[in-house]
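User: Run a structure prediction on this.
Assistant: Running it now.
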Amino acid sequence: MTFLVLEAVSVIEDFKEIGLLLDGEVIAFVLNFIIDSFQNTLQAFMWPVNIVQIAPPYGAIGLGVAFWLFPIYVKKHIEAWLFEGADEEQLPKGE
């Protein structure tokens, strides 16, 4: 048991030394990761704007038609595929 404790302490101390060497790089990596994640989140929420900007009148019309037709024709097939063996009570409640 003592051997395991000493080995664990040794490994922790080694990681602390590595952390001291790489502190600046690790902080920069974490900050870049957070900034990239925030940018990706904004772009993911703004995809309808990109569709509308591709062709101003037709992009908006196409997007509206897609939002109108999706729940009618596509959603049921996707739910049937995703929840293939589920009972009726387990299916998500929708429109």
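The chain has three helices and no strands.
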